[in-house]
Amino acid sequence: MNNTATYISELLYRYECVILPGFGAFLTRRQSATIEEATHSFYPPKKLISFNSQLKNNDGLLANYIAAAENISYTDAVAKIQRYVLSLKEQIGQGKRITLDKIGSFYSSVEDTLQFEPLDDVNYLSEAFGLSSFVSPAIKREVEITREVYKEEVEAIEEAVPLTFTPEKRREQPYLQYAAIAVVVLGLGGFFGLNQVSNQNITYNDTQNNEADIEVKHRIQEATFEISNPLPAINLVVSKEESLKNSTTSESISEKYHIIAGAFRIASNADNKVQKLISKGYDNARLIGKNKYGLHQVVYQSYSNRIEALQALRKIKKEQSPKAWMLVQEL
């Protein structure tokens, strides 16, 4: 039994991109909580799934996961994926509609192009675990009554039921005048108070949305993928001339993998951090300039090899600071 679809579904909870080698990539994008005014339905935040048939190269993520889950070799896991992709292509080529459990359906359109329809039954956003949609009854709101409407109603009442008071009655019951004034003041105060609360709520919501956008951009900047079971090593034997050529080429490769120790708004604080790292033995610690938020970035060290950078990152997180992260950027 081939459980490749199940493994893809499990990886979508942890990663934003899962590639099925030779077939395409499943991508996820976060969607905020939504409200449908027509049905008064509330939906929690979720991950939306899409498919890109152009991303087919094997990145090792799915194969390593299958090898670890089924206790088989990496080569056997790759062969299993190839058989699964071949079966999918044959069925789609025959005009069948293929459904991947908890992911979505594939079919060929009239123009002979591959189409994908995601399923909405599963929410791959782990932060929204346990949240479900619900329907709230409609809220009945009172019709806004302006000062002119109050005035027209009072004039209509005075015409229908004229009131006459003698001087003696005015002196005996002055509280009626104060009571009428109090009712008008309370009504106007409540009306303007509701408007002020509504404006405050709108301002607060706008502020929260802006902060959420900034946080998402910051998390995307700090995102790092780690594969616990890397691809097996391959030993190559090359001639002396090719070795010299390769060494010259490798020297020209820029160090684009940076282990970030911190980002500081004040330059002197960033310089102090560099000196502390050097005193701890990180002789290659340095500043790499400002990020788009205007913060001075300090690195433990920069690498040109991704595997070496990941190994150094795990060691630094364990021995120095769990807040260290890797930035991939050409300087």
UniProtKB/TrEMBL annotation:
Residues of the SPOR domain: 251-329
Coiled coil: none
GO MF entries: peptidoglycan binding
InterPro entries named in the record: HU-CCDC81_bac_1, HU-CCDC81_bac_2, SPOR-like_dom, SPOR-like_sf
PROSITE patterns named in the record: SPOR
Domain of life from the UniProt record: Bacteria
SUPFAM superfamilies, per database record: Sporulation related repeat
Keywords from the UniProt entry: Membrane, Transmembrane, Transmembrane helix
Gene3D superfamilies per UniProt: Sporulation related repeat
Transmembrane annotation, as ranges: 175-194
Protein name: SPOR domain-containing protein
Organism from which the protein derives: Aquimarina aggregata
